[in-house]
Structures are given as structure tokens and as C-alpha cells.
Amino acid sequence: MSAAYKEISVKDIQEAVIRDLKNYKALKVKLENIRERKEASALHIFPVLKRNESIDELKAKQIERAINDSLDPIERKIIEYKYLNINSRDMTDLEIHMELGLKKGKYYIKKKEAIFQLAKALGII
Asked: Out of the domains of life, which is the source (predicted)?
């Protein structure tokens, strides 16, 4: 194996997807805040150190599409409960599999499948 080629592990894929899902929550809030400031004609109420609004908007749109279009309803609920629960705390795996009425093993299979589907849809793998 050459030095330029690095085998991608399951953990690397999961970490990349989870990082993007957690950033997605902040991106959605950021874009809503920007829209609100534009409506109020108050664009610069906070200092701006880095500006990537068009990239952020594209990224949020693609993550949302990946969640809505590449996951089955159970996978979508798992991702929403685990990583995107904006109005309250993220739920634990135990709480989610109990809430969805899934056995523990089936829950972890569906969670892993959801993460891999998102990785494919987002072009991570």
C-alpha cells in the first residue's frame, strides 16, 4: 500500500458524518439568523470573522436533502433523535430504541445503515 492511500475505517466514516450532522444544526440556525437580520435590515449586529454564507447554505441544503431523500423513515427518526433534536437535548441510544420500539440489535444496525447512507449521499464515501 502506498503512503498516499489510506484505508478509510468505519469509525472515520461515522465521525465525518456525525461531525457534519452536528454542524448542520448550527448551520440551520445561522441561516435563519441571517434571514431574520436581512428582513430587519440589521445585517451586522455581530462581528464577522469568517463569511461563507453561500457555502453554508449549499451544505445545509445538501444535508437536508440527504436526510429526507436517502433514509427510510426509521433511519430518519434515529438521525433526528440522536443528532438533530434542536429543541431539546440529544437522546441516548437507549431512549431512541425504546421510543421507536426497536430491539437493541436492530436499532444499532439501522443507525449504522443511516450513517452510511448519509455518507454516500453526501459524497463522503
From this structure: Bacteria
Phi, psi for residue 48 in degrees, rounded to 5 = -110, 115
The pLDDT, as a whole number, for residue 123 is 92
Pairwise CA distance, residues 61 & 86, whole Å: 17
Count CA within 13 A, CB hemisphere, residue 114. 24
Model confidence over 49-67: pLDDT tens digits?
A: 776 777 888 999 999 999 9
Q: Which helix or strand (DSSP H or E) is residue 123 part of?
A: none
Cα dihedral sign, 2-3-8-13 = negative
Helix, strand, coil percentages, rounded to 5, for the chain: 65, 0, 35
CA nearest neighbour of 19 among 65, 59, 70: 59
Backbone angles phi, psi at 82, to 5 degrees: -80, -40
Q: What is the DSSP string of 57-98?
A: HHHHHHHHHHHHHHS-HHHHHHHHHHH--TTSPPPPHHHHHH
Q: Whole-model pTM? A: 0.79
